[in-house]
Amino acid sequence: MMDTTYNVGIYCRLSNDDERDGESVSIENQKLLLQNYVRQRGWNEVDVYI
């Protein structure tokens, strides 16, 4: 069986409650959690969308 490597984009969602100037702590945490998730599965992170 052939292993499949996925190219993925990470999508972080900013809640209206978290809005402020610059990136929120919530976005930074989401990005870190999702990057770890992607790495653990051996996938390729192509881009991050906010």
From TrEMBL:
List, in alphabetical order, the Gene Ontology terms for molecular function in this entry: DNA binding; DNA strand exchange activity
Q: Which InterPro entries match?
A: Resolvase-like_N_sf
What's the protein name? Answer: Resolvase/invertase-type recombinase catalytic domain-containing protein
